[in-house]
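// run 5 | inverse folding | seed 20
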């Protein structure tokens, strides 16, 4: 099938590469000429396991191309997949201006049947507005061209995005147009594997499903973080409680990890946007307000603990920080808890020496030399008064504890991801603080 992807951010790029991989002919449009030139040369502007190989292979095979040519992009695909960014505006509302721009461009250039597919996370009702915008452009041109607008939200997790696209749990399709539904069914046929994974529903339900799923997961995380704080004062261990809870199949084990709160490009933005939509319709989502509040506070949980340990005087103190990215296997710093931690530590007058296997260039671009960057986890510990762990990268799981103790000025570990056993850490001579245990 011939298809066009509008927007080469995370979702657009992964979707384009994966759809090319199964044999489709894919045209990726982006307005950023430098980015397009880099992509056309096989250089990927983000860190995502497996993606570079996939893009390079499909470029070489001629099934994937990148361009800034809007008219050519609209002419190319029967399927027009909109995967542009929908960042949060100051009020929390999703900014859908790039979606409007894409819709107008399609309406201005289309000459034959198109299925316009909304993949960006957008407020409920956006597909209807896309439909109206295209209709207005066609009316302006005084032409009649058939088209359908469907919603097909994406559920990619950063760090596992290629795998998630290739082996989806479910494919949500909001479509009220039979011809479009048939085309989308055949587009996703290669990803069905052993059972039917496509869930067909109306457009608005599909749009809401994406927000609902992310809000539910964010709620689980904030619930566990609040419970962890209670477990701590009760002398219980949230990790044991988590096992006990997860073994109930109605609850399940996933997304029950207490930590430093959720970050990333989706949960914070989507929870805010859903609350905003709800408030607009005078159906306030009270639970989600609490989810956000708990999340904000959780980021600074270990800094608050450090304050009780270090007292008022942070001048001359140095904090070693392991992990900067909001989660492992990505260099994405959007809403990373580490940023809130760094800001609070610097504001109190201490310094930070950080290590992250991939996110240091991205952090430098944001913070410059406000913090120091170490070449290895051990180098970050040099003359540090404490170590704080903010991301559960694999390489932090089994370090040389003897060496760590020798390098740290004080044997204090603040573990925001509960990587180690508290009892063992005490035996090794550390003062060890995790989350909820
Ligand atoms: C998420 C959704 O999982 C995905 O379906 C959607 O399409 C986009 O948003 P992503 O943001 O890539 O994906 O990361 P995810 O792995 O879901 O983690 C989000 C945040 O929650 C991270 O900061 C992570 O550290 C935190 N988290 C996750 C917890 O604190 N505890 C958990 O148990 C799970």
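// decoded
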């Amino acid at each position: 099938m011939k298809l066009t992807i509008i927007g080469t951010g995370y979702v657009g790029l992964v979707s384009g590469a994966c759809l090319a991989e199964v044999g489709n002919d894919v045209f990726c449009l982006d307005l950023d000429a430098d980015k397009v030139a880099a992509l056309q040369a096989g250089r990927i502007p983000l860190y995502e396991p497996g993606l570079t190989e996939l893009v390079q292979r499909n470029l070489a095979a001629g099934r994937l191309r990148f361009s800034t040519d809007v008219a050519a992009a609209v002419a190319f695909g029967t399927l027009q997949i909109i995967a542009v960014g929908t960042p949060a505006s100051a009020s929390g509302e999703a900014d859908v201006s790039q979606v409007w721009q894409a819709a107008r461009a399609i309406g201005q250039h289309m000459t034959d049947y198109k299925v316009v597919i909304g993949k960006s996370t957008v407020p409920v009702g956006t597909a209807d507005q896309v439909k109206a915008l295209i209709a207005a452009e066609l009316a302006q041109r005084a032409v009649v061209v058939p088209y359908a607008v469907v919603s097909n939200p994406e559920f990619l997790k950063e760090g596992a995005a290629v795998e998630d696209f290739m082996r989806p749990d479910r494919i949500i399709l909001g479509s009220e147009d039979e011809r479009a539904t048939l085309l989308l069914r055949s587009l996703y046929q290669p990803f069905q594997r052993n059972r039917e994974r496509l869930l067909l529903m109306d457009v608005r339900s599909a749009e809401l499903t994406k927000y609902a799923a992310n809000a539910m997961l964010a709620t689980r995380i904030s619930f566990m973080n609040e419970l962890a704080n209670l477990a701590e004062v009760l002398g219980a261990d949230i990790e044991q409680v988590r096992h006990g809870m997860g073994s109930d199949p109605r609850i399940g084990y996933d997304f029950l990890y207490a930590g430093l709160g959720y970050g990333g490009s989706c949960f914070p933005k989507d929870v805010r946007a859903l609350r905003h939509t709800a408030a607009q319709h005078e159906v306030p989502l009270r639970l989600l307000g609490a989810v956000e509040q708990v999340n904000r506070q959780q980021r600074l949980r270990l800094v608050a603990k450090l304050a009780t340990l270090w007292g008022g005087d942070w001048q001359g103190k140095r904090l070693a920080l392991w992990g900067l990215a909001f989660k492992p296997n990505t260099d994405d710093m959007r809403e990373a808890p580490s940023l809130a931690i760094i800001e609070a530590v610097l504001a109190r007058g201490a310094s930070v020496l950080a290590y992250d296997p991939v996110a240091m260039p991205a952090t430098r671009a944001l913070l410059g030399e406000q913090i120091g960057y170490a070449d290895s986890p051990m180098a970050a510990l040099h003359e540090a008064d404490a170590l704080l762990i903010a991301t559960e990268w694999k390489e932090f799981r089994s370090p040389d504890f003897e060496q760590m103790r020798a390098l740290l000025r004080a044997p204090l570990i603040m573990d925001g991801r509960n990587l180690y056993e508290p009892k063992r850490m005490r035996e090794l001579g550390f003062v060890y603080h995790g989350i909820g245990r």
